[in-house]
UniProtKB/TrEMBL annotation:
Residues of the ABC transporter domain: 6-243
Species of origin: Kineococcus radiotolerans
Alphabetical keyword list: ATP-binding, Nucleotide-binding, Transport
Family matches, as InterPro entries: AAA+_ATPase, ABC_transporter-like_ATP-bd, ABC_transporter-like_CS, ABC_transpr_LolD-like, MacB-like_ATP-bd, P-loop_NTPase
GO molecular function, a single term: ATP binding
Any GO CC annotation of this UniProt entry: plasma membrane
UniProt cross-references to PROSITE patterns, sorted A to Z: ABC_TRANSPORTER_1, ABC_TRANSPORTER_2
Superkingdom of origin organism: Bacteria
Protein's UniProt name: Putative ABC transport system ATP-binding protein
Length: 245
């Protein structure tokens, strides 16, 4: 068996409350992501899904425990080294799209490479836009694009440069059904070969597209399901919510 692309061990995350006392959000989560997997993270509101994604991706540091990406322990990296690892090996797709309104779709897709001071290869940008079906909209700015098109630009931006991991946080939450299905199909296709996708979602139909689904409850891993249906996931999330009450 090959070495997992991402390994998290006993990840704990706490925040300081208004009274100064620590508030636990993640209470010791261990998991792994293999190359080529699409893994979904679901759970009741407040279960720690987005916090876990932030710790796994290096957007936030765990309070304790460890997260390794391709064998590198994120806790050992300086802030600049961590930023470089994210820039080189991690892509992000968020519900809010995070596109620059003054830039065209083409320039938004090219932006990460430019920020990294890499050569921007036209072929890479054109390939990524073609993958998401937006070749003819390359010169359009975000205001001229629908919500689904903007999200597809965000996915093209994550795919334009080869990265090991793509993290998607509620990428279909603001989309209509058709646009959401298109975005999910793109993420499903992106999880192949050496690249994996981690999807945080409330949409159980979306999560059912994943190879594995992790169900969180109160900052703990409540269940792990393989090739689950939406009905299976509804039962698991309902059970997690009932235990949380």
């Amino acid at each position: 068996m090959s070495t997992p692309l991402l390994v998290a061990h006993d990840v704990v995350k706490t925040y300081r409350g208004a009274d100064g006392a620590p508030v636990p959000v993640l209470r010791g989560i261990s998991m792994h992501i293999a190359s080529g997997e699409l893994v979904a993270i679901v759970g009741p509101s407040g279960s720690g899904k987005s916090t876990l994604l932030q710790c796994l991706s290096g957007l936030d540091r765990a309070t304790s425990g460890s997260v390794q990406i391709a064998g590198t322990d994120l806790a050992t990296l300086s802030r600049s080294a961590l930023a470089k690892l994210r820039r080189d090996r991690v892509g992000f797709v968020f519900q809010a799209y995070n596109l620059i309104s003054s830039l065209t779709a083409w320039d938004n897709v090219a932006l990460p490479a430019r920020l990294a001071r890499r050569a921007v290869r036209d072929g890479d940008i054109e390939r990524a836009l073609a993958q998401v079906g937006l070749t003819t909209r390359a010169q359009a700015k975000p205001a001229a694009l629908s919500g689904g098109q903007q999200q597809r630009v965000a996915i093209a931006r994550a795919l334009a440069v080869e990265r090991d991991l793509v993290f998607a946080d509620e990428p279909t939450g603001a989309l209509d059904t058709t646009s959401g299905e298109q975005v999910l199909a793109l993420l499903r296709t992106a999880a192949a070969g050496s690249r994996s996708v981690v999807l945080v979602t409330h949409d159980l139909q979306a999560a059912a597209q994943a190879d594995r689904v992790l169900v969180l409850r109160d900052g703990l891993l409540h269940a792990e399901l393989h090739d689950a249906s939406a009905a299976d996931l509804l039962s698991a999330v309902t059970a997690a919510a009932a235990v949380s009450q």
